[in-house]
Amino acid sequence: MRTCAVIVSYNPTAVLEKAVSQLLNQAERIIVVDNASSVQACNEILDSVEQVSPKIQVIRNNENVGVAEALNIGIRLVIDCDFDWILTLDQDSVINENYLKHMYDFAARNSNKRIGILGPTYEFKDKGRKKIQLPHKLLVTLTSGSLVNTEVFRNVGLFRSDYFIDYVDFEFCLRLAKFNYSLFRIPEAVLYHEMGEVKTRRLPFKVKYTTYDTQRRFYKSRNRVLTYRMYFKLFPLWVLADLMRFLKEIIKILLTEENSMDHLRAEVAGVKEALKTVDPLRQQPPEG
Fold this sequence. Notes:
alpha/beta, Spore Coat Polysaccharide Biosynthesis Protein SpsA, Chain A, two-stranded antiparallel sheet, 9 helices, 12 strands, globular
Protein backbone atom coordinates (compact mmCIF):
# COMPACT_ATOMS: atom_id res chain seq x y z
CA MET A 1 0.00 0.00 0.00
CA ARG A 2 1.20 3.49 -0.87
CA THR A 3 0.31 6.75 0.88
CA CYS A 4 0.75 10.43 0.16
CA ALA A 5 0.48 12.77 3.15
CA VAL A 6 -1.01 16.24 2.65
CA ILE A 7 -0.27 18.75 5.42
CA VAL A 8 -1.85 22.20 5.66
CA SER A 9 0.26 24.93 7.25
CA TYR A 10 -0.08 28.56 8.22
CA ASN A 11 2.73 30.25 10.14
CA PRO A 12 3.97 26.84 11.33
CA THR A 13 6.14 26.19 14.38
CA ALA A 14 8.94 23.66 14.78
CA VAL A 15 6.26 21.02 15.38
CA LEU A 16 5.92 20.82 11.59
CA GLU A 17 9.52 19.62 11.34
CA LYS A 18 8.80 16.90 13.89
CA ALA A 19 5.62 15.91 12.03
CA VAL A 20 7.50 15.55 8.75
CA SER A 21 10.29 13.60 10.44
CA GLN A 22 7.79 11.00 11.70
CA LEU A 23 6.27 10.73 8.23
CA LEU A 24 9.49 10.23 6.27
CA ASN A 25 9.78 6.48 6.85
CA GLN A 26 6.04 5.83 6.61
CA ALA A 27 4.64 7.78 3.64
CA GLU A 28 5.92 7.61 0.06
CA ARG A 29 5.26 11.30 -0.60
CA ILE A 30 4.67 14.37 1.56
CA ILE A 31 3.02 17.56 0.31
CA VAL A 32 2.90 20.66 2.53
CA VAL A 33 0.39 23.26 1.33
CA ASP A 34 1.08 26.59 3.02
CA ASN A 35 -1.67 29.20 3.25
CA ALA A 36 0.51 32.30 2.73
CA SER A 37 2.50 32.31 5.97
CA SER A 38 3.50 35.87 6.81
CA VAL A 39 6.13 35.39 9.53
CA GLN A 40 9.73 35.15 8.31
CA ALA A 41 10.73 32.53 10.88
CA CYS A 42 7.81 30.34 9.76
CA ASN A 43 8.86 30.61 6.12
CA GLU A 44 12.35 29.54 7.16
CA ILE A 45 10.83 26.44 8.75
CA LEU A 46 9.08 25.69 5.44
CA ASP A 47 12.39 26.13 3.59
CA SER A 48 14.07 23.74 6.01
CA VAL A 49 11.32 21.13 5.65
CA GLU A 50 11.48 21.24 1.85
CA GLN A 51 15.21 20.46 1.90
CA VAL A 52 14.93 17.36 4.10
CA SER A 53 14.06 14.89 1.34
CA PRO A 54 13.18 14.77 -2.39
CA LYS A 55 9.87 13.15 -1.43
CA ILE A 56 8.76 16.42 0.23
CA GLN A 57 7.08 19.18 -1.78
CA VAL A 58 6.07 22.56 -0.36
CA ILE A 59 3.34 24.50 -2.19
CA ARG A 60 3.05 28.17 -1.22
CA ASN A 61 -0.32 29.80 -1.80
CA ASN A 62 -0.44 33.53 -2.49
CA GLU A 63 -3.36 33.90 -0.08
CA ASN A 64 -5.03 31.99 2.71
CA VAL A 65 -7.52 29.81 0.85
CA GLY A 66 -8.65 27.94 3.97
CA VAL A 67 -8.05 24.42 5.24
CA ALA A 68 -10.45 22.70 2.85
CA GLU A 69 -9.10 24.20 -0.37
CA ALA A 70 -5.49 23.77 0.78
CA LEU A 71 -6.15 20.06 1.26
CA ASN A 72 -7.84 19.93 -2.14
CA ILE A 73 -4.78 21.51 -3.79
CA GLY A 74 -2.61 18.69 -2.49
CA ILE A 75 -5.16 15.99 -3.29
CA ARG A 76 -5.59 17.16 -6.89
CA LEU A 77 -1.86 16.69 -7.44
CA VAL A 78 -1.91 13.00 -6.52
CA ILE A 79 -5.48 11.75 -7.00
CA ASP A 80 -4.59 10.16 -10.33
CA CYS A 81 -1.19 8.84 -9.21
CA ASP A 82 -0.66 5.35 -7.82
CA PHE A 83 -1.48 6.14 -4.20
CA ASP A 84 -3.93 3.87 -2.40
CA TRP A 85 -4.40 6.30 0.50
CA ILE A 86 -4.11 10.01 1.25
CA LEU A 87 -3.26 11.03 4.82
CA THR A 88 -4.58 14.48 5.77
CA LEU A 89 -2.82 16.38 8.55
CA ASP A 90 -2.61 19.73 10.33
CA GLN A 91 0.75 21.37 10.92
CA ASP A 92 0.62 20.66 14.66
CA SER A 93 -0.19 16.94 14.39
CA VAL A 94 2.47 14.26 14.91
CA ILE A 95 1.90 10.55 14.25
CA ASN A 96 3.40 7.73 16.30
CA GLU A 97 5.72 5.01 15.02
CA ASN A 98 4.09 2.38 12.79
CA TYR A 99 1.04 4.61 12.49
CA LEU A 100 0.39 3.66 8.88
CA LYS A 101 1.35 0.02 9.41
CA HIS A 102 -1.39 -0.37 12.02
CA MET A 103 -3.90 1.10 9.59
CA TYR A 104 -2.67 -1.01 6.66
CA ASP A 105 -2.95 -4.16 8.77
CA PHE A 106 -6.56 -3.37 9.63
CA ALA A 107 -7.40 -2.58 5.99
CA ALA A 108 -5.85 -5.86 4.83
CA ARG A 109 -7.83 -7.88 7.39
CA ASN A 110 -11.06 -6.12 6.42
CA SER A 111 -10.77 -5.88 2.65
CA ASN A 112 -14.41 -6.99 2.35
CA LYS A 113 -15.58 -3.80 4.07
CA ARG A 114 -16.18 -0.58 2.12
CA ILE A 115 -13.58 1.43 4.04
CA GLY A 116 -13.61 5.16 3.36
CA ILE A 117 -11.51 6.50 6.23
CA LEU A 118 -9.28 5.04 8.93
CA GLY A 119 -8.92 7.40 11.87
CA PRO A 120 -6.50 7.42 14.81
CA THR A 121 -6.76 7.63 18.55
CA TYR A 122 -6.17 11.27 19.47
CA GLU A 123 -3.94 12.44 22.28
CA PHE A 124 -4.69 16.10 22.89
CA LYS A 125 -2.40 18.44 24.74
CA ASP A 126 -3.74 19.00 28.30
CA LYS A 127 -6.40 16.30 27.80
CA GLY A 128 -4.49 13.07 27.32
CA ARG A 129 -5.75 10.06 25.39
CA LYS A 130 -8.89 7.97 25.65
CA LYS A 131 -8.18 4.32 26.30
CA ILE A 132 -9.51 2.31 23.36
CA GLN A 133 -8.85 -1.41 23.11
CA LEU A 134 -10.31 -2.48 19.77
CA PRO A 135 -10.94 -0.88 16.37
CA HIS A 136 -14.50 0.36 16.12
CA LYS A 137 -16.79 2.05 13.66
CA LEU A 138 -17.47 5.79 13.84
CA LEU A 139 -19.70 8.21 11.98
CA VAL A 140 -17.31 11.19 12.02
CA THR A 141 -13.70 11.99 12.87
CA LEU A 142 -11.31 14.93 12.54
CA THR A 143 -9.54 15.67 9.27
CA SER A 144 -6.11 15.64 10.87
CA GLY A 145 -4.80 12.10 11.02
CA SER A 146 -7.43 10.63 8.69
CA LEU A 147 -6.18 8.04 6.21
CA VAL A 148 -8.59 8.41 3.31
CA ASN A 149 -9.11 5.78 0.63
CA THR A 150 -8.14 7.60 -2.59
CA GLU A 151 -11.13 6.20 -4.48
CA VAL A 152 -13.39 8.14 -2.11
CA PHE A 153 -12.31 11.46 -3.59
CA ARG A 154 -13.08 10.19 -7.08
CA ASN A 155 -16.51 8.89 -6.08
CA VAL A 156 -17.89 11.48 -3.64
CA GLY A 157 -15.78 14.57 -4.35
CA LEU A 158 -13.22 16.65 -2.48
CA PHE A 159 -13.57 18.75 0.67
CA ARG A 160 -15.96 21.71 0.50
CA SER A 161 -13.72 24.71 -0.06
CA ASP A 162 -16.61 27.09 0.70
CA TYR A 163 -16.44 25.90 4.32
CA PHE A 164 -12.92 27.40 4.60
CA ILE A 165 -12.36 26.05 8.14
CA ASP A 166 -14.34 24.03 10.73
CA TYR A 167 -16.84 21.26 9.98
CA VAL A 168 -14.88 20.48 6.81
CA ASP A 169 -14.19 17.08 8.36
CA PHE A 170 -17.67 16.36 9.71
CA GLU A 171 -19.42 17.28 6.45
CA PHE A 172 -17.00 15.06 4.51
CA CYS A 173 -17.50 12.10 6.87
CA LEU A 174 -21.29 12.40 6.70
CA ARG A 175 -21.09 12.56 2.92
CA LEU A 176 -19.07 9.33 2.92
CA ALA A 177 -21.64 7.66 5.16
CA LYS A 178 -24.36 8.81 2.77
CA PHE A 179 -22.53 6.89 0.03
CA ASN A 180 -22.19 3.81 2.26
CA TYR A 181 -18.50 4.14 3.08
CA SER A 182 -17.35 3.09 6.56
CA LEU A 183 -15.06 4.88 9.00
CA PHE A 184 -13.04 3.03 11.64
CA ARG A 185 -10.86 4.21 14.52
CA ILE A 186 -7.61 2.28 14.95
CA PRO A 187 -6.47 2.32 18.61
CA GLU A 188 -2.78 1.55 17.95
CA ALA A 189 -2.45 4.51 15.56
CA VAL A 190 -1.97 7.56 17.79
CA LEU A 191 -1.99 11.20 16.70
CA TYR A 192 -0.58 13.83 19.05
CA HIS A 193 -2.68 16.88 18.31
CA GLU A 194 -3.21 20.43 19.55
CA MET A 195 -6.60 22.12 19.29
CA GLY A 196 -6.68 25.88 19.67
CA GLU A 197 -5.74 27.76 22.82
CA VAL A 198 -7.06 26.05 25.95
CA LYS A 199 -7.74 28.38 28.89
CA THR A 200 -9.08 27.86 32.39
CA ARG A 201 -11.45 30.18 34.20
CA ARG A 202 -12.49 29.85 37.82
CA LEU A 203 -16.16 30.44 38.45
CA PRO A 204 -17.84 28.75 41.40
CA PHE A 205 -16.24 25.78 39.58
CA LYS A 206 -13.26 25.44 37.23
CA VAL A 207 -14.05 25.62 33.50
CA LYS A 208 -11.66 24.66 30.70
CA TYR A 209 -12.47 26.05 27.29
CA THR A 210 -10.94 26.53 23.85
CA THR A 211 -10.87 30.11 22.65
CA TYR A 212 -11.14 31.24 19.03
CA ASP A 213 -11.23 34.62 17.32
CA THR A 214 -14.59 35.98 16.17
CA GLN A 215 -13.96 35.17 12.49
CA ARG A 216 -13.54 31.52 13.32
CA ARG A 217 -16.64 31.64 15.52
CA PHE A 218 -18.55 32.83 12.44
CA TYR A 219 -17.29 30.02 10.20
CA LYS A 220 -17.86 27.37 12.85
CA SER A 221 -21.49 28.30 13.51
CA ARG A 222 -22.26 28.87 9.83
CA ASN A 223 -20.77 25.56 8.75
CA ARG A 224 -22.34 23.48 11.49
CA VAL A 225 -25.82 24.84 10.67
CA LEU A 226 -25.24 24.23 6.95
CA THR A 227 -24.25 20.68 7.86
CA TYR A 228 -27.38 20.26 9.98
CA ARG A 229 -29.54 21.34 7.06
CA MET A 230 -27.88 18.92 4.66
CA TYR A 231 -27.80 15.82 6.84
CA PHE A 232 -30.57 16.04 9.45
CA LYS A 233 -32.86 13.64 7.59
CA LEU A 234 -30.10 11.05 7.21
CA PHE A 235 -28.37 11.41 10.60
CA PRO A 236 -30.83 13.08 13.02
CA LEU A 237 -29.24 11.69 16.20
CA TRP A 238 -25.82 13.06 15.29
CA VAL A 239 -27.29 16.47 14.45
CA LEU A 240 -29.23 16.63 17.72
CA ALA A 241 -26.16 15.59 19.73
CA ASP A 242 -24.05 18.24 17.99
CA LEU A 243 -26.76 20.83 18.53
CA MET A 244 -26.47 20.14 22.27
CA ARG A 245 -22.70 20.69 22.00
CA PHE A 246 -23.43 23.97 20.20
CA LEU A 247 -25.67 25.16 23.03
CA LYS A 248 -23.01 24.23 25.61
CA GLU A 249 -20.44 26.24 23.63
CA ILE A 250 -22.73 29.27 23.68
CA ILE A 251 -23.06 28.99 27.45
CA LYS A 252 -19.26 28.71 27.80
CA ILE A 253 -18.80 31.81 25.63
CA LEU A 254 -21.12 33.81 27.90
CA LEU A 255 -19.37 32.55 31.03
CA THR A 256 -15.73 32.66 29.96
CA GLU A 257 -14.91 34.97 27.03
CA GLU A 258 -13.86 38.50 27.96
CA ASN A 259 -15.62 40.01 24.94
CA SER A 260 -18.45 37.52 25.08
CA MET A 261 -20.97 39.66 23.20
CA ASP A 262 -18.59 40.07 20.23
CA HIS A 263 -18.18 36.29 20.10
CA LEU A 264 -21.91 35.76 20.44
CA ARG A 265 -22.64 38.21 17.62
CA ALA A 266 -20.21 36.30 15.38
CA GLU A 267 -21.99 33.03 16.20
CA VAL A 268 -25.40 34.57 15.42
CA ALA A 269 -24.11 36.04 12.16
CA GLY A 270 -22.87 32.59 11.13
CA VAL A 271 -26.24 30.99 11.87
CA LYS A 272 -28.06 33.70 9.88
CA GLU A 273 -25.73 33.21 6.92
CA ALA A 274 -26.37 29.46 6.96
CA LEU A 275 -30.13 29.91 7.10
CA LYS A 276 -30.03 32.35 4.15
CA THR A 277 -28.43 29.73 1.89
CA VAL A 278 -31.22 28.52 -0.38
CA ASP A 279 -29.83 25.04 -1.07
CA PRO A 280 -26.68 24.12 0.89
CA LEU A 281 -26.31 20.87 -1.07
CA ARG A 282 -25.94 22.83 -4.29
CA GLN A 283 -23.90 25.69 -2.89
CA GLN A 284 -20.75 24.03 -4.21
CA PRO A 285 -20.99 20.85 -6.27
CA PRO A 286 -18.27 18.41 -5.08
CA GLU A 287 -15.35 17.92 -7.45
CA GLY A 288 -14.56 14.39 -8.52
